[in-house]
Amino acid sequence: MTERARFLLLMTMLTVLVGVLFVASLLIGPAGLGVSASLSALFAADGDVVAIVMQEIRLPRAILGAAIGATLGLSGAAMQGYLRNPLAEPGLLGISASASLGAVLAIYTGVSSVFSLALPLMALGGALFAVVVVRLLAGQNATPLSLILAGVAVSSLAGALTSLVLNLSPNPFAALEIVFWMLGSLKDRSMTHVWLSLPFMVVGWVMLAHVARALDALTLGEATAASLGFRLNRVQALVVLGTAASVGAATAVAGAIGFIGLIVPHVLRPLVGSHPSRLLGASALGGAAVLLAADIAVRVIAPDRDLKLGVLTALVGAPFFLWLIFKTRREMI
Amino acid sequence: MVSAVYHRLRAVLLLLASSVPVAAEPPQRIVSLNLCTDQMLMLLVEPARIASVSFLAQQADSSVMYKEAAALKPNYGGAEEVFVLHPDLVLAGTYTARATVSILERLGQRVEQFEPATTLADIRAQLLRLGDLVEERPRAEALVAAFDDQVQQLDKPQHRPLAAFYFANSYTTGRGTLPSAVLEAAGLRNLGSELGLEQTAALPLEVLLTAKPDLVVKGRTYDRPALAQEIFVHPALAYLDARSEEAVVPDTYMVCGTPHVLRAVERLVDIRRGLAPAVPQPVATRFHSGAMTVR
Questions:
Q1: Is the domain of B162 the same as that of B111?
Q2: Pairs of residues, one from chain A and one from chain B, whose beta carbons lie less than 8 Å apart
Q3: DSSP state of A259
Q4: Interface with A, mutate which of B162, B197, B206 (most A CBs under 10 A)
């Protein structure tokens, strides 16, 4: 089997997996509806209760699960490829935490209730701020270690400010929602949230997809990539803006979900060969599958406890992160 | 060291306490630490006999009698602030200011505790009990008689529509709660009770929709936003007759077991009469099984 055929097979399998998990996500819920009844209700036009549950409650949850997972996988792969750094990931670099801060400012100050697009836009602003700051803090030729340290600093600051804003809110529920913004959840999201975030995520995906060939060239070094005709400023702008737009919008409606952008590209990298361009699409599908699976798991493990997604992703992701550090520590020091 | 200081402090405080005249006559310096005992007390005794009520009693968003409470001295439930008032009777709820209550009891204060009322019968019993404590039995009996009279006049409808409270973060109220008793008294069935939920319990939006209640009373919305309140504007809720609590009955009328709950009952009776006559339908049992475990 040629390398290309193997890649196509992998993509097919991942697509099927995402499809299966998407349907499974639609079928799981506290109302315990029948399989065929609920799937046909998905396309029913009347206002039957089952149709409302499927179309207004479960469908947005499944769509957001797939789209946000794809965002995290894709942006993780793009950042690892662009920074040529195995530990780059929106969560670890503080991009998700800063997007959360932007979203929290938009919601709890009441700005988003006046102008609803303020929510994704301010989250995008937070994410953009983090990417730029991390890049500046870590310097141009950042080692993995300095990049992670910059990310830790940005994450901590954004997390502290998020807590501060929520603690100062006069609404008695706000302080309890710190957990949502730090760990993420898809509970009771609606189509409103899909329409608010999906367009920004799609724009981000398109931008990140545009850098695929450049990422391949960058494996040969910046000078070679430039000599091959890639404008590196443009590549950097696309990676930064694409990540900020997609991760910002994803975080604005679901909170910060960590580690998916770290694990998925690492698991898939050996399967796609050494092509960062191929890793992008595969990681997007892989991320969607992982987040859909995590969102199914939180509903099955603790149906009435609103377990946060970040709890599950960190339980798997943090040990994986430690293992990665162990593996790469020689080059880090 | 710490215990030595404590013992000395205790001795001083006990000395102070003993200088207060022992209540041989009806209590004249009554302190209440709990919003519900505050309101019962204000119904039963003259303001001159009330040394202090909780600060919550003065707030319009928690107390029905905030106007009556405005002239009284507020307390924040601290042992020290209560002690310096030299009360001859302290009223507390069984769940409020636990530390304060235990300190006051160790200091020899007379503290009377009241369980949260969860039924209309509790309201009668508590009024009579407090009436005895403050030696205002006739006044308590008059209040109870008026209360019974009003309860008697409530109609008992043949068709009892299904209603649900739906609070922030998708919580509802089940069996053994005052709001549930209020719904029942108003001739409505409580969805939370029929689903077998106890106390305040999670009610997923899906389950609320599939139960098809005739009326949903959405919880209070604070001015300042929070995600907890986003559930009230979820598009799926638009398919039900969901009304905001502010438009139906403020929860201040259902927080405490006082005769004021009848205002909430009357309001809900009016709303029940205005509901579209529906075919009675039991809550479908298939929603009990499977993924949802009921706490």
A1: no
A2: 103
A3: S
A4: B206
Chain A residues in contact with B239 by the CB 8 A cut-off are 47, 49, 52
Q: How many domains does chain B divide into?
A: 2
**For position B202, which CATH number holds?**
3.40.50.1980
Q: At what angle do helices A95-108 and A118-138 cross, to 10 degrees?
A: 150
Least CB-CB distance to A32: which of B225, B228, B289? B289
Six token digits for residue B140: 């308590």
pLDDT in tens, A7-48: 999 999 999 999 999 999 999 988 888 888 888 888 888 778
Q: Give the best residue of A55, A56, A167 to mutate against chain B (max B CB count within 10 A).
A: A56
Task: Say what the pTM is.
Answer: 0.83
Of B206, B229, B234, the CB nearest to A31: B206
Q: What angle do CA B44, B45, B46 make, to 5 degrees?
A: 140
Reported ipTM: the value is 0.82
Q: Which of B91, B117, B143 marks a domain boundary?
A: B117
User: Distance from first CA to last CA of chain A, Å, rounded?
Assistant: 40
- B147 falls within a domain: no
Q: To which residue do tokens 């209550």 refer? A: B101
Contact between A147 and A88 under an 8 Å Cβ cutoff? The reply is yes
Is B209–A31 a contact, with Cβ atoms under 8 angstroms apart?
yes
B222·A171 Cβ contact <8 A: yes
Full domain range(s) for residue B91: 26-117
B78: amino acid identity, one letter:
G
**A29, A53, A112 member nearest B291 (Cβ):** A29
Amino acid, single-letter form, for residue B230: E
Average pLDDT over residues B42-68: 93
Q: Domain A3-332: state its class.
A: mainly alpha
How far is the alpha carbon of B53 from chain A, nearest alpha carbon, in Å?
A: 23
Contacts of B220 in chain A (CB under 8 A): none
Q: Which residues pair with A317 in a beta bridge?
A: none
A34 → chain B, closest CA residue:
B286
Neighbours of A143 (CB within 10 A): 14
pLDDT in tens, B260-287: 999 999 999 999 988 866 554 444 443 4
Contact B108, B130 (CB under 8 A): no
Q: Measure the CA angle with vertex A22, ends A18 and A28; round to 5°.
A: 140
Distance from CA of B234 to the nearest CA of A (A): 6
Contact present, A211 and A285 (Cβ < 8 Å): no
Question: Whose CA is closest to A260, among A284, A238, A296?
Answer: A284
Sequence-separated (6 or more) residues with CB below 8 Å from residue B284: B210, B211
- Number of other residues whose CB lies within 10 A of the CB of residue A93: 32
Both tokens assigned to A242: 């694409």
Closest chain A C-alpha to B202 CA, distance in angstroms = 7
Q: Using an 8 Å Cβ cutoff, are A76 and A261 in contact? A: yes
For B70-101, how does the pLDDT look when each residue is reduced to its tens digit (9 = 90+)? 999 999 988 889 989 999 999 999 887 788 89
